[in-house]
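User: Oxidoreductase, Mycolicibacterium litorale:
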Amino acid sequence: MSPDHVVELRINGETHRIETDVRTTLLDLLRERLHLTGTKKGCDHGLCGACTVAVDGERVVSCLTLAVSIDGSDVLTIEGIADGDELHPLQRAFVECDGFQCGFCTPGQISSAHAMLAEHARGDLSTVSFDGSRADVVNGCPRLTAAEIRERMAGNICRCGAYANIVAAIEAVAVKGRTG
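Assistant: Predicted structure for Oxidoreductase:
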């Protein structure tokens, strides 16, 4: 019996049917088979967040996600966040706020922040959400404070320590409501 399986994934809006070994991670499929190298392999243990992508709108660490386990899903990588040559507001904010230094973690940070803003908009809570006051609630959602952003982005590590600028970039987008 062959360990190969055909998966069909819609990646950044384009459908791909790929025969792959059942042990292949989404990260390796993206990088090695589809040449979408924006998603980075950091620790390869699901601890650093460099490989974060969205699967059906939810953040996942692609180094721990088997490609066959998400057969039929929509995947959004860093390459799909921009609109052609037009940067997404989150990408622009990272540039404007200097939200990166070496840049290795940046694709995972932006992918994670992109999905996190959608999670927040639909009303998903974090542990920090329960620490705020009623004044911090806007349209039924806790206001996205710096503490809230730090908590929600905790799975993404930046070895350079650009956290203050990363939080500022996300906050700038959240305040202007430019999450689209």
